[in-house]
Fold:
Amino acid sequence: MQGVLSLDAYDLEGQTVLYRVDVNSPLNPVDKTLLDDSRLRTIKSTLELLSNSKVVILAHQSRPGKDDFSDMSQHSDRLSQIINRTITFIPDICSNSTISKIREMVNGDILFLDNMRKHNEEYGKIYENWQDTENSEIVSKLSSVADLYVTDAFAAAHRSSPTLTGFTNKLPCIPGNLMMAELSNLRIAIDNPPRPYLAILGGAKADDSLKVALNLIQSNIIDKIAFVGVVGNLMIWAKGYDIGTRNKDFITNSLGNSFDKTWKIAQLLVDKHLDLLILPSDLAVEINEERVPMKLDELPTEYPIYDVGIQSLMDLRPIILNSKCILWNGPASFFERTGFAFGTIEILNMCIETDALTIIGG
Structure:
């Protein structure tokens, strides 16, 4: 890809490589074991290219305060099984002891450092701009013992934190195989997308999703934007439906200080660009651990909204099938909850059925 460095351009043998990945994975809420290793599998091909290098893996799992915030030991063990190579887990990030262990590595060694977000520089500290992340302890120490920085952390690439943006001016920064593939597809979707172009924005990160929606509209490259998941709940609330205290509290609490700004974007989208938006026309709530359909005119509800409804999916189907480019970020439902994976699975099946260029993430 023009303007982007490639691993093929480097002699990787003997090089100490900081390899930033996003293997943030769902954990069993009871025993905290890995439920899905698909993200770990996606980095296998890059590690094969680095087989004669000294690789230091940097990663995170969730964030402080969340139930699934954990160390990276089981990620390390599972990755070792996937690639059939020895990986040494280091329950630390950048202490002098860890730096010494990196210096002692030999070709073919792989160290998997602990959850980067255990360090307050990586998560919790606010940076005015990405350049400020260069001055962190993490970057200063790790860059002193490395030759290259390789990243496949596509899903986290929008964040400004030391291990994602801090090495930019410290080391040669190169995309891994996963990152390169994602960039190539996004280049098409951004520079010259086939039309009609549909975006499907879901998940729980409403602040990020609405920024993306506004940018797509202002760039004049999108034909329709469908909102599902928690983002969809926020948008029907912004349109004037009372989704119930419980659901409103969930949204406001999850957004925290960014709620006011996010709410303003939601209202702007509804007020100025409603013709481009596809909002849920019905929902599914959980009552006594059962999935129960709910029409919008039955709102408000005291029960949690965990999925879009059948009619919403029927409305979306012809639009998906007629699209030539689809950008989908974030699930349509609380798919980990029994009975509520339906909306996400159905949209996925629709995307598989179409011939459109389809980019799915989140």
Notes: Residues 133 and 203 are 28 Å apart (CA to CA). The two ends are 24 Å apart (CA to CA). The first helix runs from residue 38 to 42.
